[in-house]
Give the backbone structure.
Amino acid sequence: MGRGEGLNGSNFFVEHALFSPKRGDSPARMEISPPLLAAALWALAATTVAFLPMRHQYVPGFSLLLAAPPLLAWIAVDHGVIFAGLGVLAFVSMFRNPLRYFIARARGQHPEIPK
């Protein structure tokens, strides 16, 4: 039994499609799936936006906020709800302050916006 193989000889990593082998390549050469690549790029973009001064964060931050639900849905469709749940945890961790603001606004409160 090789690395990653189950009792029936199946390969866990290939079956669960986290990584998929390129056509004609050996199973040792794998590439990342498109939704996970997009999620990694989204996380890098969100980190880059966090380095900007607050007054320059609004437009790119809001666009990343709007892009997150379709990206999480894509991850859920391709990899299942466990991986989408991990993505939701990462999303909430990175956007906790904007989400607190929108929740407060939904409750009728008027939170102060940082300058």
Summary: The mean pLDDT is 81.
